[in-house]
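Throughout this review, each integer encodes one residue's backbone shape. One record appears below.

===
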Amino acid sequence: MIKVEKLIKTFHNYKRREGIKGAFFDLFQREYKEVCAVCGVSFQISAGELVGYIGANGAGKSTTIKMLTGILIPTSGLVCVAGYVPYKQRIEYTKNIGVVFGQRTQLWWDIAVIESFRLLRKVYEVDKKIFEERLNNFNEMLDLKDLLYIPLRKLSLGQRMRCDLVASLLHNPKVLFLDEPTIGLDVEGRVKIREFLAHINKTEETTIILTTHNLDEIEKLCKRVIIIDKGRILYDGLLSQLKESFSCGKRVIFVFDEEKTREELNNLGFNGQVGWKKLEPLRYEASFDRKILSAAEIISKVMAELYVKDMSIEETAIEDVVRKIYREGNVNL
């Protein structure tokens, strides 16, 4: 469904000189610096996949999405989505995709939401019966009935995002691009949108690319992730494999009957292979490398020496894995 090969996008940024004198010289001779926002990115996405496209601020995520949607023209490289070259066949291409940018809306600000939907039906040339069926389905899933006859400007951010999602899907696109679709939303709003996206992906087999800084959403929605940093792909594969191979750490949380000193915990005989952290007065975290020790070994030894009221085992959070990848700049699987 999506094929990207050696995609490059460079920008020429204007470099300002300091002070009044510098501003005067800039009137006659400007200095430009070439910045590579996307540097040779390649990947393929099959029909029906839901892929997380993640990276730090300035990594190149939004630039990639804008080239995939046809907003930006690549400096070089190949982009093909649903059989179209986005920036060359924009009119026909846009009938096959849906786009949601978290901080921008495609709906009209001063008219009722339903009127925007009807205008979009005509733009995308959607049959009236199909339009009404899809709108009714979306109304039930996202609870929009009370919002349809209200001008967009009077809706909250979460309500607008739900309406924007519907607008992007009314014409049943083959591909849906989502750039920070839950930014600024509360927990309930994020959950509702997340459940809706999972349903659309499963029932309609819509191919979805999701960019977000909320890695909890990525973990709950996406089996596959692409990590980009400084315009280059660091990882492209299964999220489960990334966590299994790149994260060797685990944590065991113990709740003791009384407070413990660091010296007491360090004297349990792990020879420095377990790191201890006090979370609360009676709650302590034991972190370790599962390639060296097992959780069972740690639990067995701690319970033999100390009274344990409660305990739990936790995997390394995906946020910690991705943060480590950014810091090291590569992935060695």
